[in-house]
Amino acid sequence: MTSLREARNIFNWHSGRARYIFVHIPKNAGVAVRKAPALADRIVASDPYFHKSRAYTRAVAEAMRANGEHHGFQHARWRDLHPKVTARLRAVAVVRNPWARTVSRYRFAQRVAELGKAGGHETAPSFEAFLEERHVYGGRPHYWHRAIRGWYPQTDYVVDAAGVLRADILRHEYLSDDAMGYFGIDEPLRRRNRSGERVAHRDFYDARTIQIVADWYAEDIALFDFDFDTPARRNAVFAEPG
Fold this sequence. Notes:
The protein is an alpha/beta fold. It contains 11 helices and 4 strands.
C-alpha cells in the first residue's frame, strides 16, 4: 500500500514540483534530508514508484523477506532508478567518511539488538567481529538496501554502470551547511535516526582495522579522497582539497 508520504512524492513528480531525486546511502543522515520540511515538495525519495521496474522492486522484496530483513526500498542506487526519473530530476546523495560510517553501522546494530529488534540476526560481539561480517554479506545481491549488513561501497550508489558519477554529493560531516548552500534553504537540517550518543570513530580502531576498512572501501577513498579523519575532499559539491 502506498503511504501518504509516497503519494505526496508521486504528486510532486507528476506536477513538476520535484526537482531532486535523493539517493539514500544507509547511515549517512538520509532521513534528515528526506524529512526536512523545507524540502518536502522539492525532493523525492527513491520509492518503488521511481524504481527502474516493478520486477526490480519485487526482487528486492523477495530477497529481503527470504532473509528476514526489512525491504529498505528507499536505499535504491542511482542505477536502480527509472531512466525517466534520472533524466528529469537532479540526483543528490550524502557521503560519509568510511571509517566513521562503519562505526555508525556497528553501533546501530548494537542499538537494534538492545531494543529487541534484531529479527533473529546475531549481533557481532565486538567491532572486530563486525568487520569480519564483510566476508558474509559483502556482495550479497540487493544488500545495498541494508544498513547493518550492507557492505557495498558508497560509490556503488552514485555511479552508473560505466562507473561515471551521476549524483551531486553533499558531505555528512557538514550536512547542514552543505544542504543550506545546495538547496538554498534558510534552516539547518534536523538530525534523525541516530545510532546513539556521538563518539569519536578513531577510538574504535587500531592499525590493523584501519587498514581493513581502507582496503574494503578503496573505491570510496579514491573517488572522494577520504583520509581517516576527513570528509570527502574531492567530487563533492563543496569539497575542499586536503
